[in-house]
UniProtKB/TrEMBL annotation, chain A:
PROSITE patterns given in the database record: ABC_TM1
Residue span, ABC transmembrane type-1 domain: 99-314
Cell location: Cell membrane
Gene field: dppB
PANTHER family, alphabetized: ABC TRANSPORTER PERMEASE PROTEIN, DIPEPTIDE TRANSPORT SYSTEM PERMEASE PROTEIN DPPB-RELATED
Name this polypeptide is given: Dipeptide transport system permease protein DppB
From TrEMBL, chain B:
Name by which UniProt lists this protein: Oligopeptide-binding protein AppA
Keywords: Signal
UniProt KW Signal keyword: yes
Cellular compartments annotated: Periplasm
GO biological process, one term: peptide transport
Lineage: Bacteria, Pseudomonadati, Pseudomonadota, Alphaproteobacteria, Rhodobacterales
Signal peptide (from-to): 1-21
GO molecular function: peptide transmembrane transporter activity
Residue span(s) of domain Solute-binding protein family: 68-418
UniProt main location, coarse: periplasm
Pfam families registered for this protein in UniProt: SBP_bac_5
Amino acid sequence: MAIAGTILGRLLKAALTLLAIAVLNFFLIHAAPGDPAAVLAGEAGAADEQMIADLRAQFGLDKPLYVQLFTYVGNILTLDLGYSFRQGAPVLDLILERLPATLILTLTAFWISLLAGVALGVAASARVGKFTDSLITGTALLFYATPLYWAALMAVLVFSVQLGWLPGFGYETVGSGYGGFDRAIDILKHLILPALTLGLFFMAVYMRMTRASMLEVAQQDFVKTARAKGLAPATIRRRHILRNALLPVVTLAGLQAGQLVGGAVLTETVFAWPGIGRLMFESLAARDYNTILGVFLVSAAMVIIFNIITDIVYRLIDPRIGHKA
Amino acid sequence: MKHLKLTTFLVAAMLATGAAAQQDGGRLDLIVQPEPPGLMLGLVQNGPTQMVAGQIYEGLLRYNTDLEPQPSLAKSWEIAEDGMTYTFHLNEGVTWHDGTPFSAEDVVFTTKFLQDNHARFRAAFSHVESVDAPDANTVVINMKEPYGPFINAFEAGSMPIVPKHIYEGTDYATNEMNATPIGTGPYKFVEWSKGSYIHLTKNDDYYIDGLPHIEDLYYRVVPDAASRAVAFETGEVSVLPGGAVENWDVKRLTEMDGVCSTSKGWEFFAPHAWMWLNNREGPTADKRFRQAVMFALDREFVKDVVWNGFGTVPTGPVSSKTNFYTDDVPQYPHDPEKAKELLAEMNYDGTPVRVLPLPYGETWQRWAEAVKQNLEEVGIKVDIDSADVAGWNEKTASWDYDMAFTYLYQYGDPALGVARNYTADQIKKGSPWNNVEGYENPELDKMWAAAAIEPDNEKRQEMYTEIQQQIVEDVPVAWLLEIEFPTIYRCNIKNLITTGIGLNDGLRDAWIEQ
């Protein structure tokens, strides 16, 4: 019950936060030079004042800014994200169309980095100072220091151009007519390179954090007590050390999870992945106000939701946390 | 004017020659870059839209690489001797992709539709008095005055014929059919997976027997230039349209086995690059400063290094690839000493100039750096003032710059694609596609106006020669390069580029050797 009450309170606060974020975003985006009418006219390679004036009227940009703001806030309060005149579709449709691709990519990268990172961290801490430890720590450092776009391009050059094992870009084989299981396998093949490149950096971070945290917890008195009681070393590591060592890792995972939507712009660009990060970037470049505000809002909502989830996970790992508050 | 009675063009007979070797079928993957905002060509006219939608929609005419009109939806046409009437005879048996018959009424409706939505069309049609359809296959256009370049305004991008039965009486911008465009062209729209690809398929009911040859077209959206090069290397796409990869990748890709490239197919557009020099204020307001800039620039170097040898150094406002060009104009070779003299003569006080590059990729950044270096060599201080596309639009449209990179299409005639940058009536704040530099020369304005409606081509040439000589003397902008965008493709794709607008309507005739 306590948890349910807390969550309800958190959701209320979250709604207010979201509203504030929406208004702030609105002003930020309108502060950037240029507007969608000018961009569209510019791309057409020819425009006269009449065309630009027509476009502005169509987009509602001819109205005073405060009127546009009230219209916008009124819309989002009724869960209407508006219409993208540039793409000729409702913003919600555009976002829902792109969201699955991004979630597949970022969630895969998230679990790969979290599971592999924690596993490697535990392994390194168990053999601290030995060769395995140096190997894992060294590799992680390399991943940590490598710029994402470079890693991505190298991966494509090696595995796609040279070896021809994996597709170098795209979400699935275009025009293949695959369905069901074949399609899933096809998407999976396309997923490997982008998910790995996106996951490498966080894997390194989790690995280092797990290792450091494990070593720290291992020095504490309750672990000595457990040892003195004669518990098996594996049990101590799993039940006593890891459980406590995971808390900082969960904090960081919560932060990464907040970026699951919209946090993969670079990877999506290099791998031509039709996700929401690219939608955000392209809409920003085109000053497609409604779309960009929609993506920002959905991303902000995700960050808040994942914050709440992180808090719940904390309590599950360490029940003391809820009682203190 | 010479009577230009063109007899019916025997398209079928033309195609019969060599038809034996042509193979049907196959699938072609091309790059489209960037992803078009829409495919309804009557509403959106940016480059990527023209490239894809040019297979779906058609104009009354096409233009060969010498910019001579060819039949398209119109099989023949006559221009009255006084230049006041254009009569088009339409192909018979043409249907829209939804099966509705195409007729002259669609053309008449199109002229109304485009006047509301297409700035370039609106300008060309300002010389038109009325458009009539005396019968289902004839369109008669009556002019207010003779307008020589008018015959160049009928290709698919300038005047795409739109279906009356779908758009009449609707709100064009929000019509749901915009998402599933219906045209008369050789390919039909199938699917647009946003962010991934656009799929078109062969129009089996196309009115020219035996065309098109290719079964499926996939326009792939790949946002990163390096990834586009990889896509071509791995064979996943077989056509890289001009500008799809950065210039330094062109050489490597064209040296691969079985890879061909061509610079043809851009004659109609003849992209001309220059820097707008702000004629209103700052050092660039002084003609001597602008001439000094021209002498300071090493344009050959940029062509060879930044553009990897592609392109031609221009002599003035008119592209050497288009009609009414002359090279009999003042010359500006790379001459830093001459530039320094001019700067000394005007007592240039060292005020820095702000250079605004075009936000269209690495090549343009490098170009701005080369210009900065050239100008600093002769003592001009330069700040590079970068912006994204929207910011670039804003700065140029509000005249907030000293020198700004741009390039414009020429559209086959100085009156269509060149005059708009130099006449005083085109000085309009708020749009980046007119006389942004603020050049005013009343004498020349009169000549531009007279040349546009002069029916005699020899007299037009004389007038345009004089215009070019005077403008090049005044240097309102710094002409940089006649840009060449090579199309890179696998050699087994034949007939890919057959007209002056290249890939934009090229897939009608293309076929793949199996």
